[in-house]
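Notebook p. 47: complex prediction with adenosine-5'-triphosphate.
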Amino acid sequence: MTDPAAPNDSSETTTDFIRDRIRADLAEGKVQQIQTRFPPEPNGYLHIGHAKAITLSFSVASEFGGKCNLRMDDTNPEKEAQEYVDAIKEDVRWLGFEWDDMVYASDYFGQLFAWAEQLIEKGLAYVDDQSAEQMAQGRGTAHSAGTNSPFRDRSAEENLDLFRRMKAGEFADGEKVLRAKIDMAHANLNLRDPAMYRVRNLHHQRTGDEWCIYPMYDWAHGQSDSIERVTHSLCTLEFEHHRPLYDWYCEQLGIHHPVQIEFARLNVEYMLTSKRKLLRLVEENHVDGWDDPRMPTIRGLRRRGVPPEALVAFCKHVGIAKVNGTHELSLLDFFTRDWLNTRTWRRMAVLDPIKLVIENWPAGEVVWKDVKNDPSDESAGTRKVPFTGVAWIDRADFMAEPPKKFFRLAPDREVRLRFGFAVTCTGYDKDADGNVTTVRCTYDPESANGKTSDGRKVKGVIHWVSAEHAVEADAHLFEPLFSEPDPASTDGDEFAQILRSDSRVIKKAMCEPSLLEANGGDAFQFERVGYFYCDPKTSEPGKPVFHRTVGLKDGWKKAQKKG
Ligand code: ATP
Ligand code: MG
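Predicted complex, structure tokens below:
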């Protein structure tokens, strides 16, 4: 099967400000071989926003015959863990990308330290004894200049000695900081003597107890890019104001100088794209972990049944912009449906069952039908579907007092049971609460294979499952986690208030017997109900659990508009 959205296709026609810049740099001979990287901090699971950054950096590299590294930005051991490193690798691969080098910022701790010493020797960095509060105060504001630290003019010799003693473990957390010596009155606050190293007496997941000082993001990031000979360092807009510092470090050190280019973060309605907030959802038990199918994490989307190709196609479609914006959830649904439509086998399952009794059906008779797995693909073969005198049909497919345009079942009206016979409703039964329990009907014995006994047309078609053969399975239906399209704007206690109570509804679905053989990871189109994914985590042999990935149409949005 060819895939126009395959992750590694070469989209020569794709044009945007990043690709234009790369083309120009290649044409002018500024670079020969494109090198990009994706640099996550292993302090949480990747989310849909990261999927966009991954798609961009990996696609750009492959389109221009270059390379892309996966780099763990592991400079903050407090919040990082191997668990996250492993998950990130798995998620990137699941998306369909393969890195050239797998690297860690912590691999460069030695080089970073040596470079810091160089800056100290050149009088461009100093050890500051001020407390965090004093430094924050001395920084000034956007409208007022900062003030120089009383320790700013230490000699290079003294700074070198103190810095080495910082590394040797002579100081407690917060006691000393290495700062770049730039300009305390600079219009850009990031250049007002930014911190390069702080003392953190912490065990690091990779370097163990070798280090008790750790580099700050701005110091580690650009230098890591430089070491890897990154040509174009693609990052999100919030780093735009850090670019002058990125450039300053490379220039002062006289090392390979990558070009940093910023693009807008991906935001999707009803989704949070902040690891910190997603962690809260997990820790406060609002969801069943990072891979809960309602989570916007890559593994959440995966367990929801969103195919990686659909996610990548979505990321490519939204493209890159210079201004932050928010995309509709229905756009992701569109790509998901578009991918699944031609690749899933059809099945029948009834999610809200009521009984249909065919009064003139020969007692005990079972007709086994050969039904195509995929009506548009002969090679997909068939499965056997049993038809009997008692079936489950969906509650929504019957109305006791229907409006005119209701083409499903109602008293004296006729519908076709998909792949089966045409039936005419003769009556129905209700329980004490007035809910319909059973619908009675007669069938036309000559109505198999789309015909009827007298050639009359039967307009409506409904799905069904033989009651005797039905397999009961849990079907999970999802709605967005939040009632607010912009949940990121809410925090604190209000966060809990905007969580929807109906974000997951579990139905006891009556499924056709072939679904007994569903394996974890299989995707199906349940006729008229949506696309479902057999959950590998909770399904057991003979006891599948299905997650609705997406409806056939944008049902919830319509319902919302009405409500
Ligand atoms: P968070 O705030 O959720 O922790 P982060 O930016 O700190 O996100 P990192 O692990 O540092 O997470 O991100 C790795 C890369 O992914 C960075 O280059 C970052 O710019 C990019 N990225 C993160 N979030 C998004 C997003 N919503 N859209 C596009 N790119 C993103
Ligand atoms: Mg970050």
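Notes: Residues 48-63 form the longest helix (16 residues). The chain has 14 helices and 27 strands.
Next step: compare against the earlier run before touching the bench.
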